[in-house]
Amino acid sequence: MNQNEPLAFRMRPKTLEEYVGQEHVLGKDKILTRTIQADRLSSIILFGPPGCGKTSLAKVISETTKYKFYKMNAVTSGVADIKKVIEETKNFMLNPVGKSILFIDEIHRFNKLQQDALLPFVENGTIILIGATTENPYFEVNKALISRSMVIQLKPLTEDNIVTILKNTLTKKEGLRRIPN
Questions:
Q1: Predicted local distance difference test score (pLDDT) of residue 107
Q2: How far is 181 from 166, CA to CA, in rounded Å?
Q3: What's the rounded Cα separation, in Å, for the pair 24 and 140?
Q4: Which of 57, 68, 159, 175 is deepest in the core (most CB within 10 A)?
């Protein structure tokens, strides 16, 4: 654990059990929970307000899955970055499974050409796409990508969720609890 990392980064959940909130899609016996636990995820688009857990959920998936996991932000990435992920995914020496998960934060910021570059690889299963957006994906994400993805709306955290997160922050060694040297 690096104490210089931001608190939110240190406290980000690593497992479904540590994840707080979104019980409507991640509760016991919910389809998303079952697909993550079985490592049988298909492409998904997560949308909801800032701070609701989109990136944290992607982090949990990255810790749970057997697939190589790539993360990019649409604000700072482009088609060349997508092509690099595809090349590494198809390289048997780097990725014997031949399939990867690509998390794209702010996917709504990709233009049509950038989103189109993903399509053939989502279609043929080379890439499992996890897109995160604060915008309504039905207006901001390519319809072809939407049709090949499960769209999941995340809700704002409840007061109880926030209390749980604050308690964890105060009691866990990654949080604010003092650790003697």
A1: 94
A2: 24
A3: 24
A4: 57
